[in-house]
Amino acid sequence: MWRGETTSMSNQKLYNVAVVGATGAVGEQIIKLLEERDFPINRLKLLSSARSAGKTVVFKGREITVEEATPDSFEGIDIALFSAGGDVSKALAPHAVERGAICIDNTNAFRMDTDTPLVVPEVNIEKANEHKGIIANPNCSTIQMVAALKPLYDRYGISRIIVSTYQAVSGAGSRAIDELLRQTRDVLDGKEAKPEILPVGSLPVKHQIAFNAIPQIDKFQDNGYTLEEMKMVRETKKLWATIRSK
Length: 246
Description:
Layout: E1 2-3, E2 15-20, H1 25-36, E3 41-48, E4 56-59, E5 62-65, E6 67-68, E7 79-82, H2 86-98, E8 102-105, H3 121-124, E9 134-136, H4 140-156, H5 174-188, H6 227-244
Parallel strand pairs: 2-3, 2-7, 3-6, 7-8, 8-9
Antiparallel strand pairs: 1-3, 4-5
Pfam families: Semialdhyde_dh, Semialdhyde_dhC
Domain Semialdehyde dehydrogenase NAD-binding: 16-131
Subunit structure: Homodimer.
């Protein structure tokens, strides 16, 4: 746990912040951004699975020991940033809310929940004030797309969107990044590249990602589209509905 100064020269309010999924690829970037932007933190708590608990992370020159995320981890927390997967968010975010935290969820756990605002600041920041303890952000591809399309939507309106995305393996987590690096080295060394993670870790068939593009992100749905594709469809419609209701 990291504790900063409790007061500042500008009397700026300081917050107790928890990062859930602190040792993952996204969690590492969240911590980096909190430091780079000098977010007003009084106390920073880094949380992860039991497997990663005990690791240390450097924040503002001081080491913080990562703790296992449990329902009791959120006592006294003002803001909880979740990036540890949908199942973790569903299990722990309600407990964080009960203890008074505002949860910013980076997973798909609450995106389509009718009581949870889906927010992209450049598009519908005012919806963040309608939260009941949890604020969801959309899929990464959805965020970039709607931020670019919002000015066109305001001026001309949009009736149909056709989009192609080319996404980084980091979307599948740090293990997928390691797999890309390992396969790339193997191919360059003339060895066989053994796929173990992509396109979906829980599916039996895997494909090489090094020097390749896999036309599948997440599992295929009954309509023939993958879950990633349907996330963009559903999330964009929800976001557009908030704009039309202004």
